[in-house]
Amino acid sequence: MEYDLVITNGVCVTASDVAAWDIAIKDEKIVLQAPSGSLAEAKAKRIIDAQGGYVMPGGIDCHAHLDEPAIFIKGSNGRSADSWETGTRSAVAGGNTTIVAFAPQGKGQHSLLAAVETTHKLATGNCYTDYGFHVLMSDPNPQALDEFKTLKEKEGISSVKIYMTYTALQLRDDQILSVLLNARQNEILTMVHAENGDVLNWLTDQLEAQGKFAPKYHSNSRPPVLEAEATNRAIALSSLIANTPILLVHISDPSAANRIRIAQNAGQPIFAETCPQYLFLTRDDLDKPGFEGAKCVCSPPPRTKSDQDAIWTGLANSTFTVLSSDHCPFKYEDKEAGKQCCVNDEYPVGRFRYIPNGIPGIETRLPLAFSAARLALTKFVEVSSTNAAKLYGLYPRKGAMIPGVSDADLVIWYPQDKLGDISITNSMLHHDVDYTPYEGKRVQNWPRYTILRGNVVWDRDGGGIVSEKGVGQFVKRGSKARMSSMQCE
Ligand code: DUC
Ligand code: ZN
Ligand code: ZN
Ligand code: ZN
């Protein structure tokens, strides 16, 4: 048989193993794993010599906002900066092969299916990675709840995100219960943004009354307890709906993580996500001169150095199921739709309450986390790829390297020490954003090749993005896999 692609001399890392295997690919699938070097002479259209570099399942980033209106900021014309084209281009240059981003239910839009149709129009033919949608639900009206069945069975959408904050999005507890009930009936996973919106609005008013408008006060308006309280409440609401599984997204606060851990230890199906901003940024980054701190305004806000350590520990001990980017970019120099929309003569340091919440990070997620070397290699693959596939109904087609079963979605890193120390600059990234919050941060490795269903899409030394847009396909997703014997579902 002639293979389409063979990868030889690499060290394969999955969520369970580190082993020197060669890999053969045919018709977009991994078809064979064999001892290292044994396929070096195989008949193949292309052979990549991975020379002692790590070969892993491609990154799966299931938390990104592309071409989304910033409905969470009152009166805002803001729109997340990246399109499906530029967002997935950036993703693939950072080692990702699948992303799941949001189909937002617009203001006044009753139907979730209409939101899905709109989002398909934005994405179709434009993507460099395979992709799926979560619906972002701001109005749990009866029609929308009824649509869960069609979403799951016909559209291949098996997750919904809801908010406990932002005036335009925030659901009351009774509405959350209705979502959880319908989600349970249709095996849809509910992602919860857990911050107490009423409290943070009140604190914001207090800060403004004291003349505190600068970006750093974003952090004061969202103290950790507000995240811990909402996390606790979400867990309680899940327990009322027969312990229906929920995923607490973008957890930043160790006390919220502890509450999650307690629920997990009690056997509740509570899953959690954290993001690079809670591992690599701190609240001090919001206190840069002038308005620069706005570049790191996201919600929840970055915390302290010791909180970062606790979040790393939570990744290592499986409190966190996934490490996602929460790529939600807004341009900095954009007075219409970007971070500077609230800077004017009256408010020269802006008004933090109107700074669009979110930062870019889809391309830097894997290089930053890999270079930090704080997780075992298998753990790194688990939280950045395999668990995302399991949670969101993509496994084992995605997130694994099982011959005959898994798509040939791979990321190949440079051999250790080959690349040296590189400094992240915005000019090397592929998003459509005018800054990165990680400017100047040093990393020791970067994805050398990203391979989507057997096609090289990113070749760092051979032209960068080497595929046309449109190679990425929509993936219909199924139910969440069973993920832990501890958690009774
Ligand atoms: N939540 C997100 O998930 N992304 C950006 C803004 C927010 O609050
Ligand atoms: Zn409505
Ligand atoms: Zn959120
Ligand atoms: Zn998000």
UniProtKB/TrEMBL annotation:
Domain Amidohydrolase-related span(s) in chain numbering: 54-457
A Pfam entry, by short name: Amidohydro_1
Keyword Oxidoreductase: no
Keyword Zinc included in the entry's annotation: no
Highest classification ranks of the organism: Eukaryota, Fungi, Dikarya, Ascomycota, Pezizomycotina
Family assignment from sequence similarity: Belongs to the metallo-dependent hydrolases superfamily. Hydantoinase/dihydropyrimidinase family.
Protein modification: Carbamylation allows a single lysine to coordinate two divalent metal cations.
InterPro entries: Amidohydro-rel, Hydantoinase/dihydroPyrase, Metal-dep_hydrolase_composite, Metal_Hydrolase, Metallo-dep_Hydrolases_sf
The protein's name: D-hydantoinase
GO CC annotation: cytoplasm
